[in-house]
Amino acid sequence: GSDDLNKEYDYSLLKGKMAEKGYTLTDLAEAMGIARSALSRKINNRARSGFTQREMVSIAKILDINLDNINRYFFYIRCTENRTKCKNLKK
After folding, report:
1. Helix 36-43 vs helix 25-32: angle between axes, to the nearest 10 degrees?
2. Cross-strand bridge partners of residue 77
3. pLDDT, one tens digit for every residue, the chain (91 residues)
4. Which pairs count as long-range contacts for 83-90, CB under 8 Å and 24+ apart, including other chains?
5. Residue 62 is part of a domain; what is its CATH number?
6. Which domain, by its residues, includes 23?
7. Cβ partners under 8 Å of residue 91, min gap 6
8. Do residues 85 and 67 lie in contact, with contact meaning Cβ atoms separated by under 8 Å?
């Protein structure tokens, strides 16, 4: 629901993939053609809007993420509430 729009996304899997592939925020932003600060704000939930579809596909190509698994990297909601409620959000 619209509740999800107020949630923070957990990008730890994405950050892990960056590390695995040897990318820093600067490297990834450069490869995407966006400012490092813009990428930093998005990946740390500080931006007004999240990643665009184009940015997600671009990151997936750069980091060799299978598009079938893209939701695991971009749509995993960080849980700050009770565990039962959080488990329901992950489905």
Report:
1. 110
2. 9
3. 445 556 789 999 999 999 999 999 999 999 999 999 999 999 999 998 889 999 999 999 999 999 999 999 999 887 765 555 555 454 4
4. 89/4, 89/7
5. 1.10.260.40
6. 2-90
7. none
8. no
Query: Which residue in this structure is represented by tokens 């490092």?
Result: 36
**What separation in angstroms does the CA of 54 have from each of 6, 66, 82, 83?**
22, 15, 33, 32
Would you tell me the crossing angle of helices 25-32 and 53-63 to the nearest 10 degrees? 120
What gap in Å lies between CA 40 and CA 67, rounded to an integer? 22
pTM of the model: 0.80
The values of phi and psi at residue 79, to 5°, are -100, 120
Task: Quote the number of domains for the chain.
Answer: 1
